[in-house]
Amino acid sequence: MKPNSSRCHTAKAHPAWLLLCVLISACGGNYSGGSSESGNSNSGGSGGSGGGGQFADSRQFFSERVAPSLNFCRNCHVDGGVADTPEGSRFKLSASAVDDYEKLNASWIALGKGVESNKLLIEASVPAEPHSGGKPWPVGSVPYENMKILLQCWDNPSACAALLGNGGDPVTGLPLLGSKRGGHLWESFCAGKDENDATPLPADPRSLVRPGANEGRAVFYNAFWQDCHANAPEAEKQAKTCGEYIKRRERGRHFILDELPVGNSSAASHRDSWRKWGLSARPDNFDELYTLRYGLNEAPFHNPYPLQGEDPKVARDCPDGRTNVLGGCGRLPLGLRQRKDAQGKWTGQIGSAACLLCHGGQIGEPTLIGTESLGSGNNNYDVIMAARDGSPFINTPVETVLPPFDINYVFNIGVKQRGQNNAVGAFEFLNTLLDVDSLGINPNPLKTITTGGAQGVLDVSHPLAHTQDTPAWWNMGSRPRKFFDAGVSNDSTRIIMAAGPGELQTLFTYDGVPYRSRIEEWDQDLEAYFLSLRSPPWPFEKSPGVPDIDTTLAEQGAILFHSKNLWAETGNANRPKPMGGNGSCASCHGAYSPRYVNDPAYLETPALEGVAGHISPLAVIGTDRARSDMLTPTLRAGWDSTYWGYPEGTPGYVAPEDKDPITEALDDMSPLRQPGLCGWQKDVIGYQAPPLYGVWATAPYFHNGSVPTVEAVLDSSKRHTIWQRKLRSEGTVKGFDQRLSAYDKSAMGWQHTAMTCQQMPGTQQINCNPADDKGPSTQQLVQNFLNRTLSWAGLLTIPDPAANSIDKRLVYDSRILGNDDAGHEFTDVLTEAERKALIEYLKTL
Q1: Predicted model pTM
Q2: Which helix (H) or strand (E) element contains residue 727?
Q3: How far is CA 567 from CA 129, 216, 582, 585, in A?
């Protein structure tokens, strides 16, 4: 189908026709121009042809009908471009369009002349032909027909005149660069409105990802949305107007800041933390050193505590220049928060805001990842040090054998390294202690045993589920399912409150009512707040206000990201193939470029911009499978009928309060329990490709944080078995350096150093395997075996008596079960130039 050129270029054209013309001309449909950001855009349809008349000769036809399409090719087919390879250089353009006619003609001759058999035509149009730039002019499209006419003129000059009135006017394509930086459609749609606004909300883009969605297109979906609240009361369903959404969003913001913190530690106790650090006096930069020691980060909002002699209820001027400050002159990090009383006044008591311990990430200054980007995964949190300093066994031999008895450690089960957490293991711990539908106390060790596990036998190894690198909240609005394996629908809002029960007396009760009530009170408000968050922009600048991004290279990366079929390369010929899509990065991670977002060959609606809903099977993705193997047997078998699976929305459900106590206590393991509306995903065992908004700020990478840079993600030869991030230390206090000076701009990730087992802290005989320097140590072989076969065995550590052995937490060791850095090797087929272009493009998201 060709657009009617006169209607497409008429100023009063109907909007539907204008949209159709743009979509037909977009990349993967009909490319016809370069990005407006590249300076290469040309508009056709004026001059010699008069919109369908005769041209004087093939050169004039080329200038008006073909040249605009070549601006897309110019992104890559130039000296130094990603297509400047032995294969791609057979077709090469100049940076200037002046000599395009001669360049194209020379390439046509070099490629063997002809028309429909010539690579100039078929590489960019025939699906079976490998072309990293995709298919910018499919067979029958306007650019295809125009190029075909030009080649016919060259092939048979005597017949050219009769052809020059054919073809069609090209339409300039949409930009290659541009990003909405995550967040949710509702946030932008409701911008400028208030809580009283009655404007109906558009459909949640995530809810569009159902079986059959986007079928046959370049972006492939198999992680489907489920409506958990379908049979819930209207007040419990998704917001329907901008006013409802905004009200929920603001309640969610209030919850994070002032309702989430629990506990009542005194400000004096916090001020005296330095006494456990081996120091002789309180350092002047105590607040800064506190964040360094425990891997917490400065808050981008007012987060005070009172210093010695300060009344938090009295405003004062602070030594650092702040004036009229309430709450005190001290600065608490993210993860800690001074409590307020019923009148909203500071109390001097400090609570733990548990969610922000793991989601309170930061890079550089606090303003860099500000309040609109709150919720970056904290790849810095030092649960081991926090637990050690809170343990009664600190500095005793018992400390090296048993985990510190501290709440931080309990809810980060089995963590061995700084920057990781085990939220899923902590959840399974709660699932063992609490009744599955009432959430009342009902300890049942049988819940840790299931049949049909990873090996198809009795399985007791799952509860640790292995550590993970915390994802960013700002991508919640761009994924239809939660968790690394796409376990549950993102409409399962209850689970985001699993760690927010308030005080322990709310979490542990006989009937579970306080816990469930708190969840229902805040879960959808908290989700609305998460949906409002956006990723931080690339922070490095060429000059004030100008990002340090090579836009020419980034545009090449945009094309490769959305179009290059990695499985068309010979290096991937024997690798398992994805379940669908065009084989590009976008097929799993979603489409972001305006040109591809508006191309119906990629997305059935532009509302799906940036939505990633692809589960890659373990055999395809190849990343460490320990989390999948050990998580799935229990939760996949029992989740559906738990409170978290919304069983009350299905026929035959009996509420906990309507069952007798004995039945309620014994029915947790019953195969007759009623499944809910939102079950655990059981169709594909693998890992969900994440949305990539703000990817620069989420290093290290993979679900276990095993790869420190995007460069190493794309090139597995640059990974290291053992590595360490750049450290920062002051006296006895040390931790990861979170400053921008520790960031690797070219590789996109953290600066790091490869290590050998001999260079690790601790005892060499324990760290190394005498028979295999790179293989698991003797200690790890034993612990890995126990963790595979015995429930909760990962809580124990074979002691290392060396004084500095605790510093192993500052080293990433991929030999530990669950820490393997394998996977994603299908990108090894990229050239070095292609990797650089992709990284440059990712900086723009």
Answers
A1: 0.90
A2: strand 727-730
A3: 12, 17, 9, 11
